[in-house]
Design goal:
This protein is of the alpha+beta class. About 75% of the residues lie in helices and about 15% in strands. It has a two-stranded antiparallel ribbon. α1 (about 1-45) runs parallel beside α3 (about 65-85) and α2 runs antiparallel to α3 (about 65-85).
């Protein structure tokens, strides 16, 4: 009888190790997602929306389907969009010549548009005089 008990116990041990390995790997995958989420929250709260988007995307790669991570990513993308919208600037003009209207618009980040403002105005004035 003890002989059969030993054989019966061995198959259970064969399944125990792979099951423990699966549990450990599943736990290891969840921890980096939580770490990336934490880094994303810290970046978001510091106003570094681009960094926050990257962290939340990495977290979602580790924990697909996590609704909280998806909301965090959405909020970070919205913050980044507002940041970009605030940084955009434009100059525009309508020039009439010979009964035809021409529309000109210069857009881009404010740091790039501002230095070109004088050149843009010169171009518009030259077209009006033509």
């Amino acid at each position: 009888m003890p002989f059969f008990r030993r054989r019966a116990a061995r198959p259970a041990l064969r399944w125990l190790l792979p099951a423990a390995l699966v549990v450990c790997l599943a736990g290891a995958g969840a921890q980096p997602a939580a770490e990336y989420n934490k880094l994303g929250i810290e970046a978001f709260e510091a106003g570094r929306y681009g960094d926050a988007v990257g962290y939340f995307e990495k977290a979602l790669d580790k924990a697909r389907g996590n609704e909280t991570l998806r909301r965090n990513l959405c909020n970070a993308r919205q913050g980044r969009a507002q940041e970009l919208a605030a940084a955009e600037d434009f100059r525009g003009a309508i020039v009439e010549n010979g009964g035809t209207s021409f529309y000109f618009k210069m857009t881009g980040p404010q740091v790039e548009v501002d230095p070109l403002e004088d050149a843009f105005e010169e171009m518009i004035l030259s077209l009006r005089g033509a």
